Input
Amino acid sequence: MKIFGHSAHRLHEAKLELIPGQLVPTIETADRIDRVLETVTARGLGSLVECGLATRDDLLAIHDPGYLAFLETAWAEWSATNDPKLDGIGFVWPHRNRPPRIPAAFEGKLGYYFFDAVSSITPAVWPAALGAAGAARTAAQHLAATGTSTFALVRPTGHHACHDMGGGTSYLNNTAFAARTLAKGGARVAILDIDAHHGNGTQDIFWQDPDILTVSIHTDPAQDYPYFSGYADETGGGRGEGFNLNIPLPPGTDWQGYSPALQAALQRITDFAPDYLVVALGVDSYVEDPSGKLALKAGDYSRTGQAIAATGLPRMFVFEGGYHHPTLGDCVVRVLEPSV
Output
């Protein structure tokens, strides 16, 4: 299996994030990549290939030009008017209505372009995000050229990044960028998001696209992040109606409840008959993960990987969430091994 990444992520380390009632050290850190890479290497899956950066022009395929321009200059704007020892974190999040307006003040822009306070602006956020997107694109290109499975081992995470808004430690949507890359020549692409949290950004980007099926299995958003997206009645819009499937699960769901959801997701994907499958590989569904509310155990990730491989579809994986360091690498590798 070819594994792709970019070292620019190491320079992006946010200090704090806001959770209910307090500011705490962020859990989306560079050593997450280290834990996974150590296990991938030890199990003989392959070594990491350094990729080039994506460019802003590349990313216009999935993101709004105004949002990209904001991200590119965000640190410069923040540090020009605030203490550069502090990360850029918003404090107001308006509804975009009456009509939507982008404030001139940078703290207003932060509120406009991010939907939470866990997605900090740091000195290296832009190159780190470009590196992750570039690796996801290269992994997709290698899959298309060879038909062999690939893994984009990247951070920051991506599946919460919408067309014109970031959040959930996601700035650019790596999973969506991989899918769009694969679809360039007219291919049909399915996305299976198995992160514990709804891939709201991916849903947003492909909401009206009948050529890219989006399927997400996640904790019921009535009970968990991102709260406002991921309900079962969200099925797509316009030409994309019927091409978005959400399978929300109650908090505490273990394999007994998760397995039927996975089978339903894979059946919908099989019925769609895609040319490629992109898996948003989050393992924060692990029972001890500090971020998730599901209850999968290590062996369940092997079962998940086997079920995905049994589809026989040409496939790739993009790393998303997962924050329980002692088991992080093992859970990821268990999903990947049947595809090697």
User: Anything to note?
Assistant: The longest strand covers residues 212-219. Residues 125-146 form the longest helix (22 residues).
